[in-house]
Amino acid sequence: MDTTPLNDDDKQQAGPRTLRRGLLVLRALQEHSEVGLNITDLSRVTGLQRPTVYRLLAALVESGFARTVPASKRFKAVHAGTLRQHDEDPRIALALPVMQQLAATTGDAVFLVVRDGYESLSLWREIGPYPVQILATFAGKRQPLGVGSGGMALLAALDDAKVEQIIVHNNMELEQYGGMTTREMRQLVQNTRSRGYSVVGNYAVRGALGVGCALCDAKGDPRLAISVTAITERMPVARQREIAGLIRAGLSELMPVTC
């Protein structure tokens, strides 16, 4: 890896280069507005690497220029006059006031996560005022259910048969997340159930630790989860409990059934 510091000319060129790449991704989404594009499609169409596409999409979604397509892995451009995503998805509209309050109270990043089959899907994030933030995920990002604290809260709320089915299905992908194993995943599920909230660190993002709680419907099925993520040093056990209490209190305002 080239670690040579950027000179002034390089720094001046970096901004316009990123902007051009972002516009390239946005143009591709606009040209395929009927069905949208997934990460692989965007990488192929633009010629950009997948990690670069992820970063640019995160900025476009957060700024309201792109949105996820519900129940899919695709993204669409948001055209002028189109409602922002949190106006279109009732789950975001429902959870947004709670997320904003949590971000302001804790100072850390707050995430809204839902289950989509064997995966977790991040719908929204709110960034707190603390100067060091762990932006572990972004709106539209998917990962195996249970890897992050929000996804783990959702996974642990399912029955044993579904939990095992999901863990076995995701087995081959888990190693990409900090070397996680199926054994560790099962242990995290048990810990979450015993504790009443999830605590997951260093798997999705090194040096980060998240606390999450799930919201269930009247039948006990998890509908969404809210998590708070910070650098590990800001998450001693006492603060984990405190944050879990804040999340549960917020979720109780939405629906009186917290998993």
From TrEMBL:
One annotated GO biological process: negative regulation of DNA-templated transcription
Domain IclR-ED, chain residue ranges per copy: 76-259
Gene3D superfamilies recorded: 3.30.450.40, Winged helix-like DNA-binding domain superfamily/Winged helix DNA-binding domain
Keyword field contains Metal-binding: no
Pfam families according to UniProt: HTH_IclR, IclR_C
GO molecular function, one term: DNA-binding transcription factor activity
UniProt domain HTH iclR-type: residue ranges: 16-79
Keywords: DNA-binding, Transcription, Transcription regulation
Superkingdom of origin organism: Bacteria
This protein's name: IclR family transcriptional regulator
